[in-house]
Amino acid sequence: MCGIFGFTGRNSDPQTLMDGIRRLEYRGYDSWGVAINGSDQLEIHKATGRIAETLPETFQGASFRSGIAHTRWATHGAPTLDNAHPHTNQAGDLALVHNGIIENYKSLRSKLTKLGFAFRSETDSEVAIHLIQYFLDQGLSLKEAFLQTLNSIEGTYGLALISNHQPDRLLIGRLGSPMVIGQGEGFHVFASDPAAIIPFTRRVVYLEDGECAEVGPDQMNCFRLDHSIPVKQSQQLTFDLKAVELNGFEFFMEKEIYEQPQTITDCMRGRLCQGEGTVRLGGVDPSLLVQAKRIKILACGTSLHAGLIGKYMFEMLAGIPTEVNYAAEFRYAAPVIEPDTLVIAISQSGETADTLAGVREAQRRGAQAIGIVNAVGSSIARECGQGVFLHVGPEIGVASTKAFTSQVVVLCMLAIQASRLRGRMTLRDGLIYLDALRNLPELARQTLELGPAIALIAEQYKDADHFLYIGRLFEYPLALEGALKLKEISYIHAEGISAAELKHGPIALIDKDLPVVVLATQDKVLDKMISNVHEIKARGGRIISVVREGCDALDHLSEEVISIPPVLDVLTPILGAIPLQLLAYHIAAMRGCDVDRPRNLAKSVTVE
Ligand code: AGP
Questions:
Q1: Residue 302: CB within 6 Å of ligand 1?
Q2: How far is the CA of 404 from the centre of ligand 1 (A)?
Q3: Mind listing the pLDDT tens digit for each residue in 277-320?
Q4: Probe ligand 1: pick from 605, 607, 608, max atoms within 8 Å of CB?
Q5: Ligand 1 centroid, distance to 494 Cα (angstroms)
Q6: I need a surface site. Which of 96, 146, 210, 231 has the fewest CB within 10 A?
Q7: How far is it, in rounded angstroms, from Cα 133 to Cα 136?
Q8: Is 603 part of the annotated catalytic residue set?
Q9: Cβ–Cβ contacts within 10 Å for residue 319, how many?
Q10: Which segments in the chain show pLDDT lower than 50?
Q11: Residue 264 and residue 269: Cα distance in Å, rounded?
């Protein structure tokens, strides 16, 4: 959940470190800090709140050979100055930044305190720097002390250590939190996310769990906790820097909403086999889709909502029994994994701790797992070993938008391929589905033209205290997603329910102050949705209907009607998501919220 950045090179400018963590600020922004090896001691600056626009005075005119930086999302200890990273030893000649959770920090802290170590923070991370000092006091080298410390830690870490005694070397380690090293001429750079590395180099090495590296301006030595040496292959980063810049939009979320015609195109590129009425997903062994007797989907948040849509797709198109599990529940329950159970992990970041743990638990119980992931090289992608990348580029806004629609596209492609392989979908039907997929980007572009009209609706409803979203079948998970979008960026309480559940309790909420977003684009259940709207209307509810172009059945019952282009029911959540994203975005922006960095949230929940 935090962002780590480090750089080692001769006569380096501290601004490099500031720019580096600024590109990681979406991962957490409670507080931040920078440490460089200056002259006779480490020079450190820490602050609470957002990263300063200007270089702190401490670093004015300074240069460094090695430096680390950190932007924090609090897990243990409030966002205070003492709790901000880097954490230092008592002598002030060692500094460390950490991303992750040290589960056994209390016992380590108690032992170190008894040994006379003084703690300044409430964080779990601080135990690591004192543990390193403890091992140094036992006569170990810095590298050995670092290794012994990592071997003593239970939990997850992305760690970077700087020492004033060895200005040419930085030590980094990774277990459960991402760490990527960029390689350049006369420098090395590392970060929690490759987006922060791209301005310096595209040649990178991903650290795996349990791996460490000692890096200097001209050297990078990788090693494991057991001292064995891993063979590391350099990879080339392909996405471009502008993908992580605003390009004239006010917020990344707005930019990413409007990118969706392109990202849906990119997600399908090279995967639609038009003439054969099927798809080809290179990263998935087709036999898994043939043999699967059951599918278990694991995900969190928005990715789980995509999974709920995927469930309907696999069952309706391919006849494969499918269940969707909150990853955190799955990992602690007693999941039944039968032979030929296929697990599908859905994760934009590929680093969500609960989803990663769920994959490991499923594999431990004998399941094959495939990942539907956006971040190439991420933990979930690598540990699944196979799957489908979204190819939507970095998603910076904390509220997931373009990743969600492409997750649903990928799930639809998998369901079509499974159905065709199992002989449940004819060539003719396959061609119909592929045609519908191929037309999606244009229909998404048309739907985005609703932006100004939705902004006007947002203006009218931005001061509501509560919202209710209702839908059925494919639009039930969409109701959940619409509610999540609104609540997480505008802080308005919002709830999504199956419209069929209205009479089983939620209808008690209906009154003249409650806006109800009614998702009613599917012919199959339109009559039922109209009945729901009558029930709401009769109790004074304010109706915002999302319907299919040409459907006027709700015009006389709704305060607002949003019409989206007609599309196969199975694809309606993709188009239907767009007005809900826009509504949430405009309401949040009008309320003056920090749309890209909503309070209390971070882009990737890499801790439980
Ligand atoms: C979505 O808008 C939220 N930011 C959040 O629910 C997110 O979807 C969830 O944390 C899962 O993240 P992942 O897709 O990276 O695993």
A1: yes
A2: 9
A3: 999 898 899 999 999 999 999 999 999 999 999 999 999 999 99
A4: 605
A5: 17
A6: 231
A7: 5
A8: yes
A9: 13
A10: none
A11: 9
